[in-house]
Design a protein that fits this description.
Layout: E1 2-5, E2 8-11, E3 16-22, E4 31-37, E5 43-49, E6 56-58, E7 66-71, E8 76-81, E9 90-97, E10 106-107, E11 111-116
Parallel strand pairs: 2-11
Antiparallel strand pairs: 1-3, 3-8, 4-5, 4-9, 5-6, 7-8, 9-10, 9-11
Length: about 120
């Protein structure tokens, strides 16, 4: 089971760090991906990290601003978000994947990030 948290209301230019905590064993057997869904829009890929953390992937819209990392000892994945802008406003979801991060297998509950201008 996954739970995303750390969302909130920030101003444009601010930073925010999200966490995705997993319960149970075998967390390190899965990659973890972040998606986001803005109001009235489809859920879209944001970032992903491989099982061991050695490979990371980013959407073009967040490259250079967001950093994904993981601590398998704590069963947690982090998403550090810098230079936030109003277009980053969305509910952020984390999920696990095996092989293809565009096809997650286990979704967690989302956390809302609101960026004011």
């Amino acid at each position: 089971q996954l739970q995303a948290y750390g969302g909130g209301l920030v101003q444009a230019g601010d930073s925010l760090s999200l966490s995705c905590a997993a319960s149970g064993r075998h967390f390190s057997s899965y990659g973890v991906v972040w998606f986001r869904q803005a109001p009235g829009k489809e859920r879209v890929f944001v970032s992903a990290i491989s099982r061991g953390g050695g490979s990371t992937y980013y959407a073009d819209s967040v490259t250079g601003r967001f950093t994904i990392s993981r601590d398998n000892a704590k069963n947690t994945v982090y998403l550090q978000m810098n230079s936030l802008n109003p277009e980053d406003t969305a509910v952020y979801y984390c999920a696990t994947y095996s092989g293809n991060y565009y096809r997650p297998t286990n979704w967690g509950q989302g956390t809302l990030v609101t960026v004011s201008s």
